[in-house]
Amino acid sequence: FLCHFFFVVLSMSTKVSQEDLEANQIPPAWRDACAHLLIPLNQCRLNTMYLPWKCTHEKHAYEHCQHHEYLHRLKAAGKH
Predict the structure, then answer these.
(1) How far, in Å, CA of 3 to CA of 64, rounded?
(2) On the chain, which terminus has fewer CB atoms closer than 10 Å, C or N?
């Protein structure tokens, strides 16, 4: 099961290059299929000093992507 999980994670195509991920200081643990949404979310958070009522659109888009990827992993594992 663990090998299958890593295959699924590594085979996901990201929409951001490794150079962009490194330039935006995205940790390796967060470099998944939703990393293209994490970069603008982090930039918005920095620009607005992490005010909780700001960046709601970016946060919702990122969390929606994360939930979709979770469901995809469940389906790939045969649990859904």
Answers:
(1) 26
(2) N
